Amino acid sequence: MTINVSWDDTVNTIIRVDYHDTWEWSDYDQAMDQANKMAAGTPLRVDLIINTLDGSIAPKGNSLWHIRRAMRLSPANLGFTVTVGVRQNSFFKSTIMSTVFRLFPKAAEHAAFASSLEEARTLISAQRQKVKLAKAY
Asked: Is residue 97 classed as helix, strand or coil in its secondary structure?
């Protein structure tokens, strides 16, 4: 498979989805199904890193249908999603994700973009701290 899914941390609270070279929407569906199954297998909050540094962004086809499917099937404990490697002015970010965020405003609250895996982990840590502080009040 051109998309690999694995735990990014040793306590199984961050799933990393690594894209390699070119991929198809069927690969995406399989990878997201696997990530959802992994997240559903733990009672803990699980965050997601979508790592596109070594792969193409999106093949031809109905991207909104596949992204919406993944969102609809995601377990309740899936927290924050950070996409790594999407250029600031890319078609994917400016068109596809802005459309997703317009159609699903709550999704924008649970997503971010980063330029490296380290930055993604930092964003997840900061978001977890923010949620922890909000729960304290």
From this structure: helix
